[in-house]
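Posting for a labmate who doesn't have an account.
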Amino acid sequence: MKLTNLGEEFELWKQDFHGVKDNTRRFLEHLCEDKKKIEKFNLWKHQLDAVLRVIYSYEILGKNNLLLNIVTGGGKTAIIGACISWLKMSHNLDKFLVLVPNLIVKDRLQRDFLVIKGEESVFKQFDFFPTEFKHLENELNTHMMGQGTSPQGILDSGIIIGNIHQLYESNIAGKRNLDWFLNKVGDFAIFNDEAHNTPAFEYTKVLKLLTNKTSFRMDTTATPERADGKPLDSEMIMEYGIAQALDDGIIKSVVVYQPDAKIVELTYTNKITGEKKKVTELDKEFREAESNVKPFQWIIDSEPMKKQISIALKRFEEQKRRAKERYKPIFFIVTMGIEEGKRVRDVLNKEFNLGRDKVLLVTQDTAEDNVGWKLNGEPLTAREAATNLGKLGTDFEVVISVMMLREGWDVPPVSVILLLRKFVSQVYGQQVIGRGLRKIREGDERQILAVVDHPKLLHDWLWRKVGASGVRKVDTEDVLGDEDIPTTPKIQKLVRPENLIDIPAPEYETKIDFDAILKKVPKKEISKNWKQILDSVKYDKDKWTISKTKIEQMIKLYVDKERRMEILSGEDIDVKEDEKKKKELSREELEELFKEQIVEMASNLLLEYGFGGLKKGMLYNVILDHIKLKLFNGKNLSEVRREEIEIVLENIEEIRKNFTEPIVKGILGGNKNADK
């Protein structure tokens, strides 16, 4: 439910704050003062407006379950800090539970709320408490729930920050922590950060169990669409999106680069016979061969992938020049799987001479690995290193993420993003772009985020979401030069909201013939007939690889007031052919790699479609059965030839795209039961 237009009554209320508690009036008067004279941060205009909307909704309208939809980089943490200060000062609340979906968000909030030597908490940075209430800051000590921590901290601390899983009844520690909140503390407030992560059954269950003890709940998010497409259960009182944030100069402008490329050479390989051959655009069979190329090969096959990397590195050099050594820009690369992430890292090391000390790979497997980098004398894990990127004097300047650095990973120096994967989740696509929206607090000039995409990934829906729309062709002789920073965009206002229609979530395009089945099965019934649909799939056991392309021109999409698109001259990027043969894995290593890839596929599907992880085993078994039927001719992994395992590994992306959201819902028995 939305209540984003609070009406004239709200505007009148802002003039004198009538009807509020005395301490609230004192808090608001102090909040509206200019803090620059005491060298403290002032809230941005939209942050102040958000706090005013929260207080008005709670004290005047009597509403208790509120949602703020604020763009990444819009300062949600400061708003949470202000609301905690107000509730502490005016409503005598002593306990504040801040829920987070993952460790990355938890790390960020720990830096903001936990007082560390030499740094100030968000309360001191913004001077939220008037002088006569300054002592209350001392009661807002922070407890971080985690493995091995005592629940006594829940009683002893004012702010408790925890991953939602630390309140799940499915584990002993979570059940104990939940019991303490339900039975051993008084009333408290809940701040549900990144609230779009709540479709998981047990997440929702925890929030409902805590309802009777919750005096106040506020959800915050930058992407209000839940992964399962359902609305959030809190009442939205504010929307502050990308367009408005650009107009206010709060976030970076987005510039998207896409190569307009064509294939000029293909290489055929048959794993069973070992046959290899090349065809060029001059050969008769070229057109037929080209029709067998899958869209994702434009980013997975070696030659086009290297060209995408080369284009992105040129953008990175431009961003370094703009930085003028005031800060250290970061190059962020997103891939679909761990193996692709490793390949990209190796290409950067070998082909582009970026040493391993420059490139950081962050995956579920490597997140807690020591990366050999120390901060203040302490060795850092890959996850910890990722949160400290961009600091002058640090080594890493490229970070590769595989389903890891999502919401909460806020590193302002992220200046270039390279997309080497397709997004099927609208939530995840926006989250990735959001990683680069936060401005660097260096100077007042407008800053850009350069995103390198590929048109074959069909991300037009994403660029519409972030504001890049409309077309204007511009003749230019510049080859991807140092463009001017886009000017402030013109904000488009919705005139007739009743005419809005829902845009369905994007799906992978496919050449598989589902027509015969889908004519008999309505789309809403797909989840009930998932096995029938999967059993109809056919996979090719030979493979065409893109071995040479030509970039004819570049497309550059702007998010600016004219919403324009420029057509630029192409780049002649020379890519060397791989001469070294890949080291052959042993049979045992090959089988282990196969299992790892299927586990990773199951994990990523659950995460991207908004399911909890408790049914990963069920999905893993279904994927295995599907591969056994369609690619192993009914045989078990131990019975097939190594060539057959290699065929599966080469088709892993093709397999993954057939497990669409309706199919996964059907396998898991529907979203509401996905965590049971």
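Reply:
Got it, the structure tokens are right above this. The first strand starts at residue 65 and ends at 70.
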